[in-house]
Amino acid sequence: MKEFEDVGNQCLYSRKLALTCKNPNCGTKKDYLSSLTKQEDSVDVYQSRKCYLINRPNISQEILSLLESKRSIVKSLFQKERYREALSILNGCCFNYMMPRSHLDETQITPYNTEVMDKYSLNGYINASEIVLESNIYIATQIPCLKNLDVFTKLIKNSKTKTIVSLVSNTEHLKSFIKIFSEEKWLDGKLVFHIERYIIEGQGVRILRFENWADHSVISSRELEYFYYAAGVITEYPILVHCRAGIGRTGFFIMYDFLRKKGMVNIDTFLDILFKLRSKRSGTVWSKEQLSYLVSLFVIPEFSLEI
Protein backbone atom coordinates (compact mmCIF):
# COMPACT_ATOMS: atom_id res chain seq x y z
CA MET A 1 0.00 0.00 0.00
CA LYS A 2 1.20 3.49 -0.81
CA GLU A 3 0.92 4.65 2.81
CA PHE A 4 3.32 1.93 3.93
CA GLU A 5 5.62 2.58 0.94
CA ASP A 6 5.82 6.23 1.96
CA VAL A 7 7.01 5.11 5.38
CA GLY A 8 10.10 3.69 3.70
CA ASN A 9 11.14 7.11 2.44
CA GLN A 10 10.96 8.47 5.97
CA CYS A 11 13.10 5.64 7.34
CA LEU A 12 16.26 6.37 5.34
CA TYR A 13 17.87 8.13 8.29
CA SER A 14 17.45 5.11 10.57
CA ARG A 15 18.99 2.83 7.95
CA LYS A 16 21.96 5.17 7.57
CA LEU A 17 22.54 5.03 11.33
CA ALA A 18 23.42 1.37 11.01
CA LEU A 19 26.42 2.26 8.86
CA THR A 20 28.02 4.06 11.82
CA CYS A 21 28.09 0.90 13.95
CA LYS A 22 31.63 0.14 15.08
CA ASN A 23 31.01 -3.57 15.53
CA PRO A 24 33.20 -5.34 12.95
CA ASN A 25 30.46 -7.91 12.36
CA CYS A 26 28.46 -5.24 10.58
CA GLY A 27 30.80 -5.46 7.59
CA THR A 28 31.32 -2.78 4.96
CA LYS A 29 28.74 -0.37 3.63
CA LYS A 30 28.33 -2.52 0.54
CA ASP A 31 27.83 -5.67 2.60
CA TYR A 32 25.34 -3.95 4.86
CA LEU A 33 23.21 -2.56 2.06
CA SER A 34 23.12 -5.91 0.30
CA SER A 35 22.04 -7.58 3.55
CA LEU A 36 18.80 -5.60 3.47
CA THR A 37 17.59 -7.47 0.40
CA LYS A 38 19.31 -10.85 0.45
CA GLN A 39 17.27 -13.87 1.47
CA GLU A 40 18.68 -14.42 4.95
CA ASP A 41 17.03 -16.93 7.23
CA SER A 42 15.40 -15.72 10.44
CA VAL A 43 18.53 -16.38 12.52
CA ASP A 44 20.70 -14.27 10.19
CA VAL A 45 18.16 -11.44 10.19
CA TYR A 46 17.97 -11.55 14.00
CA GLN A 47 21.76 -11.44 14.40
CA SER A 48 22.19 -8.60 11.91
CA ARG A 49 19.52 -6.56 13.70
CA LYS A 50 21.22 -7.17 17.04
CA CYS A 51 24.36 -5.70 15.50
CA TYR A 52 22.37 -2.76 14.15
CA LEU A 53 21.16 -1.93 17.68
CA ILE A 54 24.50 -2.12 19.46
CA ASN A 55 24.76 1.66 19.93
CA ARG A 56 21.06 2.22 20.63
CA PRO A 57 20.11 0.53 23.93
CA ASN A 58 17.27 2.84 25.06
CA ILE A 59 15.21 3.37 21.94
CA SER A 60 11.76 3.22 23.56
CA GLN A 61 12.70 5.83 26.15
CA GLU A 62 14.17 8.07 23.44
CA ILE A 63 10.95 7.85 21.46
CA LEU A 64 8.78 8.46 24.52
CA SER A 65 10.79 11.59 25.36
CA LEU A 66 10.43 12.82 21.79
CA LEU A 67 6.68 12.20 21.85
CA GLU A 68 6.36 14.03 25.16
CA SER A 69 8.10 17.04 23.63
CA LYS A 70 5.23 17.21 21.13
CA ARG A 71 2.45 16.82 23.70
CA SER A 72 1.30 20.43 23.68
CA ILE A 73 0.83 20.68 19.92
CA VAL A 74 -0.67 17.18 19.64
CA LYS A 75 -3.13 17.93 22.44
CA SER A 76 -4.14 21.15 20.72
CA LEU A 77 -4.75 19.28 17.45
CA PHE A 78 -6.84 16.70 19.31
CA GLN A 79 -8.98 19.43 20.84
CA LYS A 80 -9.57 20.83 17.35
CA GLU A 81 -10.28 17.31 16.01
CA ARG A 82 -7.40 17.63 13.53
CA TYR A 83 -6.40 14.01 13.95
CA ARG A 84 -4.64 13.56 10.61
CA GLU A 85 -2.18 16.34 11.47
CA ALA A 86 -1.65 14.89 14.93
CA LEU A 87 -0.86 11.47 13.45
CA SER A 88 1.62 13.04 11.05
CA ILE A 89 3.53 14.53 13.99
CA LEU A 90 3.49 11.22 15.87
CA ASN A 91 4.71 9.36 12.78
CA GLY A 92 7.56 11.82 12.40
CA CYS A 93 8.69 11.01 15.94
CA CYS A 94 8.69 7.25 15.40
CA PHE A 95 9.50 6.23 11.83
CA ASN A 96 13.22 7.01 12.00
CA TYR A 97 13.70 4.50 14.81
CA MET A 98 12.47 1.40 13.02
CA MET A 99 14.94 -1.35 12.17
CA PRO A 100 15.81 -2.03 8.51
CA ARG A 101 13.24 -4.01 6.59
CA SER A 102 13.97 -7.61 5.62
CA HIS A 103 12.23 -10.09 3.31
CA LEU A 104 10.49 -11.42 6.44
CA ASP A 105 8.59 -8.15 6.93
CA GLU A 106 5.15 -7.85 5.33
CA THR A 107 5.32 -4.03 5.03
CA GLN A 108 7.77 -1.21 5.70
CA ILE A 109 6.72 -1.27 9.36
CA THR A 110 9.34 -3.02 11.50
CA PRO A 111 10.04 -3.22 15.26
CA TYR A 112 12.30 -0.71 16.98
CA ASN A 113 14.41 -3.44 18.53
CA THR A 114 14.80 -7.16 19.20
CA GLU A 115 13.20 -6.99 22.66
CA VAL A 116 10.59 -9.70 22.01
CA MET A 117 13.15 -11.99 20.36
CA ASP A 118 15.51 -11.60 23.31
CA LYS A 119 12.93 -11.86 26.10
CA TYR A 120 11.39 -15.06 24.76
CA SER A 121 14.66 -16.67 23.58
CA LEU A 122 13.50 -17.03 19.99
CA ASN A 123 16.95 -17.03 18.35
CA GLY A 124 15.30 -15.86 15.14
CA TYR A 125 13.66 -12.78 13.69
CA ILE A 126 9.97 -11.94 14.04
CA ASN A 127 8.17 -8.68 13.41
CA ALA A 128 6.73 -8.27 16.91
CA SER A 129 6.66 -5.76 19.76
CA GLU A 130 5.57 -6.16 23.37
CA ILE A 131 3.33 -3.48 24.87
CA VAL A 132 2.70 -3.43 28.62
CA LEU A 133 -0.18 -1.30 29.90
CA GLU A 134 -0.42 -1.64 33.67
CA SER A 135 -0.98 -5.39 34.24
CA ASN A 136 -2.01 -6.06 30.64
CA ILE A 137 0.63 -7.52 28.32
CA TYR A 138 0.07 -7.43 24.56
CA ILE A 139 2.34 -8.83 21.86
CA ALA A 140 1.64 -6.94 18.63
CA THR A 141 2.79 -8.66 15.45
CA GLN A 142 2.40 -8.49 11.71
CA ILE A 143 0.51 -11.33 10.02
CA PRO A 144 2.55 -14.52 10.62
CA CYS A 145 5.07 -15.02 7.81
CA LEU A 146 5.29 -18.51 6.32
CA LYS A 147 9.05 -18.08 5.88
CA ASN A 148 9.64 -17.94 9.63
CA LEU A 149 6.53 -19.62 11.01
CA ASP A 150 8.76 -21.67 13.31
CA VAL A 151 9.74 -18.48 15.15
CA PHE A 152 6.08 -17.48 15.47
CA THR A 153 5.18 -20.84 17.02
CA LYS A 154 8.19 -20.61 19.34
CA LEU A 155 6.98 -17.19 20.47
CA ILE A 156 3.57 -18.65 21.33
CA LYS A 157 5.17 -21.49 23.28
CA ASN A 158 7.83 -19.49 25.13
CA SER A 159 5.49 -16.62 26.03
CA LYS A 160 2.81 -19.08 27.18
CA THR A 161 0.27 -17.24 25.03
CA LYS A 162 -3.18 -18.81 25.35
CA THR A 163 -5.20 -16.30 23.30
CA ILE A 164 -4.53 -14.83 19.85
CA VAL A 165 -6.70 -12.09 18.40
CA SER A 166 -6.46 -12.14 14.61
CA LEU A 167 -7.88 -9.14 12.78
CA VAL A 168 -7.47 -10.56 9.27
CA SER A 169 -9.43 -13.23 7.44
CA ASN A 170 -6.28 -14.80 5.92
CA THR A 171 -5.77 -18.28 7.40
CA GLU A 172 -2.84 -19.58 5.35
CA HIS A 173 -0.51 -19.68 8.36
CA LEU A 174 -3.06 -21.67 10.40
CA LYS A 175 -2.89 -24.67 8.07
CA SER A 176 0.27 -25.82 9.85
CA PHE A 177 -1.57 -26.18 13.17
CA ILE A 178 -4.09 -28.74 14.42
CA LYS A 179 -7.60 -27.28 14.69
CA ILE A 180 -9.74 -28.94 17.36
CA PHE A 181 -12.70 -26.56 17.53
CA SER A 182 -14.34 -23.86 15.40
CA GLU A 183 -17.49 -21.80 15.88
CA GLU A 184 -18.83 -18.88 13.84
CA LYS A 185 -20.29 -15.85 15.60
CA TRP A 186 -22.93 -13.91 13.70
CA LEU A 187 -24.67 -10.62 14.50
CA ASP A 188 -27.57 -9.16 12.50
CA GLY A 189 -26.96 -11.58 9.64
CA LYS A 190 -23.23 -10.76 9.43
CA LEU A 191 -20.34 -13.05 10.29
CA VAL A 192 -18.32 -11.07 12.83
CA PHE A 193 -15.65 -13.48 14.07
CA HIS A 194 -14.66 -17.09 14.68
CA ILE A 195 -13.80 -18.75 17.97
CA GLU A 196 -11.23 -21.44 17.18
CA ARG A 197 -8.97 -23.70 19.20
CA TYR A 198 -5.70 -25.11 17.96
CA ILE A 199 -2.87 -27.24 19.26
CA ILE A 200 0.34 -25.25 18.75
CA GLU A 201 3.66 -26.60 19.99
CA GLY A 202 1.78 -29.05 22.19
CA GLN A 203 -0.37 -26.47 23.96
CA GLY A 204 -3.96 -25.36 23.49
CA VAL A 205 -4.40 -21.90 21.99
CA ARG A 206 -7.65 -20.02 21.46
CA ILE A 207 -7.76 -17.89 18.30
CA LEU A 208 -10.42 -15.19 18.04
CA ARG A 209 -10.41 -14.38 14.33
CA PHE A 210 -12.34 -11.44 12.90
CA GLU A 211 -13.73 -12.02 9.42
CA ASN A 212 -14.71 -8.63 7.98
CA TRP A 213 -12.49 -5.97 9.53
CA ALA A 214 -11.01 -3.97 6.64
CA ASP A 215 -7.48 -2.53 6.73
CA HIS A 216 -7.21 1.00 8.22
CA SER A 217 -10.83 0.86 9.37
CA VAL A 218 -12.89 0.20 12.49
CA ILE A 219 -15.92 -1.94 13.21
CA SER A 220 -18.99 -0.78 15.09
CA SER A 221 -19.06 -0.58 18.87
CA ARG A 222 -22.00 -2.99 18.70
CA GLU A 223 -19.81 -5.58 16.96
CA LEU A 224 -16.97 -4.97 19.39
CA GLU A 225 -19.22 -5.42 22.40
CA TYR A 226 -20.74 -8.53 20.86
CA PHE A 227 -17.18 -9.86 20.57
CA TYR A 228 -16.67 -9.48 24.33
CA TYR A 229 -20.13 -10.89 25.05
CA ALA A 230 -19.55 -14.00 22.91
CA ALA A 231 -15.85 -14.59 23.55
CA GLY A 232 -15.67 -13.31 27.11
CA VAL A 233 -13.43 -10.64 28.61
CA ILE A 234 -9.78 -11.43 27.99
CA THR A 235 -8.06 -11.88 31.34
CA GLU A 236 -5.09 -14.15 30.62
CA TYR A 237 -2.00 -12.32 29.45
CA PRO A 238 0.02 -12.02 27.36
CA ILE A 239 -2.33 -12.01 24.42
CA LEU A 240 -0.99 -11.88 20.89
CA VAL A 241 -2.74 -9.46 18.52
CA HIS A 242 -2.06 -9.18 14.80
CA CYS A 243 -3.43 -7.75 11.58
CA ARG A 244 -1.38 -7.28 8.39
CA ALA A 245 1.30 -4.81 9.51
CA GLY A 246 0.51 -5.09 13.21
CA ILE A 247 -0.18 -1.40 13.82
CA GLY A 248 -3.58 -0.11 12.63
CA ARG A 249 -6.28 -2.60 13.54
CA THR A 250 -3.86 -4.15 16.05
CA GLY A 251 -3.16 -0.83 17.77
CA PHE A 252 -6.85 0.05 17.78
CA PHE A 253 -7.81 -3.28 19.35
CA ILE A 254 -5.11 -3.06 22.03
CA MET A 255 -6.12 0.46 23.00
CA TYR A 256 -9.83 -0.42 22.91
CA ASP A 257 -9.29 -3.51 25.06
CA PHE A 258 -7.32 -1.56 27.65
CA LEU A 259 -9.60 1.48 27.78
CA ARG A 260 -12.69 -0.71 27.91
CA LYS A 261 -11.44 -1.95 31.28
CA LYS A 262 -10.10 1.39 32.45
CA GLY A 263 -13.13 3.49 31.50
CA MET A 264 -13.45 7.10 30.35
CA VAL A 265 -10.29 9.19 30.59
CA ASN A 266 -9.28 12.80 30.06
CA ILE A 267 -7.29 13.79 27.01
CA ASP A 268 -3.92 13.76 28.81
CA THR A 269 -4.40 10.20 30.05
CA PHE A 270 -5.47 9.18 26.54
CA LEU A 271 -2.25 10.68 25.17
CA ASP A 272 -0.22 8.91 27.88
CA ILE A 273 -1.56 5.59 26.63
CA LEU A 274 -1.15 6.44 22.96
CA PHE A 275 2.43 7.63 23.51
CA LYS A 276 3.22 4.42 25.39
CA LEU A 277 1.92 2.36 22.47
CA ARG A 278 3.86 4.43 19.95
CA SER A 279 7.06 4.20 22.01
CA LYS A 280 6.86 0.41 21.74
CA ARG A 281 5.65 0.02 18.14
CA SER A 282 5.65 2.58 15.36
CA GLY A 283 2.34 3.51 13.81
CA THR A 284 0.05 1.92 16.40
CA VAL A 285 -3.47 3.28 15.86
CA TRP A 286 -2.64 4.15 12.26
CA SER A 287 -5.59 5.96 10.69
CA LYS A 288 -7.60 9.09 11.40
CA GLU A 289 -10.74 6.95 11.49
CA GLN A 290 -9.30 4.64 14.15
CA LEU A 291 -7.98 7.46 16.31
CA SER A 292 -11.10 9.64 16.17
CA TYR A 293 -13.29 6.64 16.98
CA LEU A 294 -11.27 5.83 20.12
CA VAL A 295 -11.47 9.47 21.21
CA SER A 296 -15.25 9.51 20.70
CA LEU A 297 -15.64 6.35 22.79
CA PHE A 298 -13.27 6.98 25.67
CA VAL A 299 -12.25 10.65 26.05
CA ILE A 300 -14.37 12.75 28.40
CA PRO A 301 -16.42 14.94 26.00
CA GLU A 302 -15.84 18.31 27.67
CA PHE A 303 -12.10 17.90 26.98
CA SER A 304 -12.25 16.32 23.53
CA LEU A 305 -14.56 19.05 22.19
CA GLU A 306 -12.51 21.98 23.45
CA ILE A 307 -11.54 24.45 20.69
Fold blueprint:
Layout: H1 2-10, H2 12-17, H3 29-35, H4 42-52, H5 59-69, H6 71-79, H7 83-94, H8 115-119, E1 128-133, E2 136-141, H9 149-159, E3 163-166, E4 178-187, E5 190-200, E6 203-210, H10 221-231, E7 239-242, H11 248-262, H12 267-280, H13 288-298, H14 301-304
Parallel strand pairs: 2-7, 3-6, 3-7
Antiparallel strand pairs: 1-2, 4-5, 5-6
Helix pairs in contact: 5-12, 6-7, 11-13
InterPro entries: Prot-tyrosine_phosphatase-like (IPR029021), Protein-Tyr_Phosphatase (IPR050348), PTP_cat (IPR000242), Tyr_Pase_AS (IPR016130), Tyr_Pase_cat (IPR003595), Tyr_Pase_dom (IPR000387)
GO molecular function: protein tyrosine phosphatase activity
Domain Tyrosine-protein phosphatase: 80-294
Question: In words, what does this structure look like?
Answer:
With 307 residues, the protein is an alpha/beta fold. The protein has one domain: Protein tyrosine phosphatase superfamily (Protein-Tyrosine Phosphatase, Chain A), CATH 3.90.190. 44% of the residues lie in helices and 16% in strands. It is built from 14 helices and seven strands. A seven-stranded mixed β-sheet has the order 1-2-7-3-6-5-4. α6 packs antiparallel against α7 and α11 runs parallel beside α13. The radius of gyration is 19 Å and the shape is globular. The two termini are 34 Å apart. One of its GO terms (molecular function) is protein tyrosine phosphatase activity. This is Tyrosine-protein phosphatase non-receptor type 20. It comes from Nosema granulosis. InterPro entries: Prot-tyrosine_phosphatase-like (IPR029021), Protein-Tyr_Phosphatase (IPR050348), PTP_cat (IPR000242), Tyr_Pase_AS (IPR016130), Tyr_Pase_cat (IPR003595), Tyr_Pase_dom (IPR000387).
